[in-house]
Structures
1.
Amino acid sequence: MSTPLIKLENATRLYRMGDTEVRALDGADLTVQEGEMTAIMGPSGSGKSSMMNILACLDRPTSGRYLLNGEDVSSLSDDRLAEIRNLYVGFVFQSYNLLPRLRAVENVELPMVYGRDTRQRRAAALAALDRVGLAHRANHRPAELSGGEQQRVGIARALVKKPRLILADEPTGNLDSRSSEAIIATLQSLNRDDGITIMLVTHELDVAAAAKRIVAMRDGRVVNDERITQRIVRPVVPASQPLAASPASLPGLRSQVEGAQ
Ligand code: ADP
Ligand code: MG
């Protein structure tokens, strides 16, 4: 098999809080091939965001290794890590993280401050907005956009440098179910049509079911890893009902997901 895009090996992440130490990751292992679309589930505090931040090269493991496209990035300097992040990764935030005074197109231009002239930047930002169906809102400020539209601007910003990997930490967490569906459809299309590897964190089984694979975390580790083999036509669990991911519940999840024709 070819070199995986992501290989996380026995990763730990300790946070020191005064005298106490929090083990946010405690031996997490994960391998992701280029072109996969993976959902990460798990209870609050199970280490999902800590893992995503490491995968995004926003943070490093305390111990263990992270190989991105075969290169060990676990102990790179901040500058080098930022370069790698620039090259490979787009990140989508739950709360969009748009700058309120900038228009949509200017928000999308932000990751391109270096290395291109103004006209090229503008053209790339407009193309990214068009890709997420938002060209007609290019000159609106975030306050003039719905939550779903703001998140699409967030995806365009993640997309504008043509990353191989898009990481989205609860991208639909602030959205109603209709806007969620549109965001998930956009991520699916980026995966299917543009070949971008996608990882998203979600609490909702119907959102996770849009992925090809569901990884469950608990206590800082990956405790279950399921590939979805059949198309999901209808969610079987209401969107409002979060999945309590545990080793015991996931075999049930698989039969529900696969049975949902
Ligand atoms: P999740 O995203 O699954 O809710 P997190 O990765 O955010 O989990 O958190 C895992 C654990 O690490 C939690 O106990 C959380 O309180 C702790 N934690 C996360 N970030 C920090 C931080 N910056 N400083 C201290 N503790 C943190
Ligand atoms: Mg989190």
Note: The domain at 6-259 is CATH 3.40.50.300 (Rossmann fold).
2.
Amino acid sequence: MGLLTIGAFAKASRLSPKALRLYDELGLLTPARVDPVTGYRRYAPEQLDRARLVAWLRRLGMPLARIRCVCALDAGAAAREIRAFWAEVEADTAARRDLATFLIDHLSWKDPAMTETTSPLGIRYAALSDAGLVRASNQDTAYAGTRLLAVADGYGSGGGPASAAAVDALKRLETDGIPAGNLLNVLEDAVEQAQRAVRGVTGAGSGAGADEAGTTLTAMLWTGSRLALVHIGDSRVYLLRDGELFQITHDHTMVQAMVDEGRLSPEEAASHPQRSLLLRALGQGAPDLRLHDARRGDRYLLCSDGLSAVVPSEEIRRVLAATGEPEPAVRELVDLANASGGPDNVSCVVADVMETQG
Ligand code: MN
């Protein structure tokens, strides 16, 4: 079979001649022959598969440079590249979905003083951090106050000062007034200050050394009717509501990304040797921001991976459901981590949403 005219090739590939000319100009699909006199493009029938692949990849939203790469690969490698591309798209979409949810909540916010008819809500809380049984020092920082709840897990040499600096920088949220419509900006500013504070104590940014210090940061700000969440890294927040336990944060770890991509089961992730490898940390990547409506009786747990890596979530649920005050709850959770060998620093913050008297 001889070469096809652009019209015949367009028909056979179900692409327009205009698209084919564009693909040629972009170097995605070069005609088998271009007439030197007339400039007419001619295509070989074997080019049909590639033309269709280019069209599908365009429909997928893959950038042109990446399509060029995929087309140069054999089928197996091309499949892997498309899978990797799609995992990135989904991660990006998930991050933007969270931001959209936050903005919707944020913009629908009503001043509770104007609408509240029942008793006002408040929180009672406790925080506890422990070095564990193996580590020489405690690089975690845990804090709980009338408005701020925070857990930070420092790593690298200088990880302790890093986690302390991050939480310290957020403490001004305890005293600063928070204008009702301004929560997002207040949080972003606080995170920026925390990043600066961490850079100040670690000297980070001078290059990614193997032992560069840094910290995770997972914090909640009580607004009087809601809890605003800032989260980056692999510390976690759980919510106990009506006896059920929900993990409301997403770990920014390599193994979690592999679970999301379907390349690892949650069970494999839990015992993976690289399970603590972070994809994001404070100052490296954007934190997740979210608002949670507070409900009377809700119990929140913020914890570092020193708890969640060794104590099964069913055990965590049992302790949170069975203990009364926050203080014995954090004590029992830290004890459980240490009873499991205490391989890491462990931090817990428990906060209960309650009706306030008077
Ligand atoms: Mn840790």
Note: The CA atoms of residues 226 and 293 lie 5 Å apart.
